[in-house]
Amino acid sequence: MNLPIDYVAWFCAQCGHEHLAKGPVSCYPVKCPQCGQNAVQHGYPVLPTNEVSRDREPRRYDLCSDQEEIQVYFRAATGERAGVALNPEWVPDCEDDPVRVAHKVLAILKEKFLWSSRMKHIADILAAMEKCDKVSEINGRKNRVHELRKAIVLAACEYRDLMEEEGEAHDQK
């Protein structure tokens, strides 16, 4: 297997044109050279995946209460989003699989509350996440390939630069 020699440095969100770079890129055009639209974005086109995140620190979400909670955010690969504020002791590990985290949060809500409108939102987002789970996994792998490809190319450039400097330092002795 050959290592990649280029990566997607920027792309046009309008027409999908991707510019491949063989080294570090610090700037990119405002308008796409292919379609002329002002839709150029830095990096590679990130494909949608199921995601879960949380607040770092507890906050007061209910202004009528002194209780601090942690908000857990869910986003399905299909675009649906939901969030729920939980007691910090109840928050599951959000580094786990997003579908598994949504199941855990839903179980916590069912255990702690007889009925909550938050349960409906989490159940809906869970259904959306389960429906697109395979696509999310495929997209996640493709996104990771882009990240690794860029890291390999940039590391190779840095390696060449350091070896050139080392050769120059060796020649000066």
Give an overview in words:
The structure is a single chain. The chain is an alpha+beta fold. The protein folds into two domains: 71 residues, no CATH class; 81 residues, no CATH class. It has a three-stranded antiparallel β-sheet. Strands 4-5-6 form a three-stranded antiparallel β-sheet, with helices on one face. Strand 1 and strand 2 form a beta hairpin. Helix 1 runs antiparallel to helix 2. The longest helix is centred in the last third of the chain and has 40 residues. The chain is elongated, with a radius of gyration of 23 Å.
**Model regions low in confidence, pLDDT < 50 over at least 5 residues:** none
What structural category characterises the helix and strand content?
Answer: alpha+beta
Straight-line distance between termini:
38 Å
Helical proportion? Answer: 40-55%
> Which strand order spans the largest sheet, edge to edge or round the barrel?
2-1-3
Name the average pLDDT.
Answer: 91
In one word, what is the shape? elongated
What is the β-strand count? 6
| Biggest sheet descriptor | 3 strands, antiparallel
> H/E order of the elements?
EEEEEEHHH
If helices are DSSP runs of H or I spanning 4 or more residues, what is the number of helices? 3
Based on CA atoms alone, the radius of gyration comes out at 23 Å
Proportion of beta-strand residues: 15-25%
Total number of distinct structural domains:
2
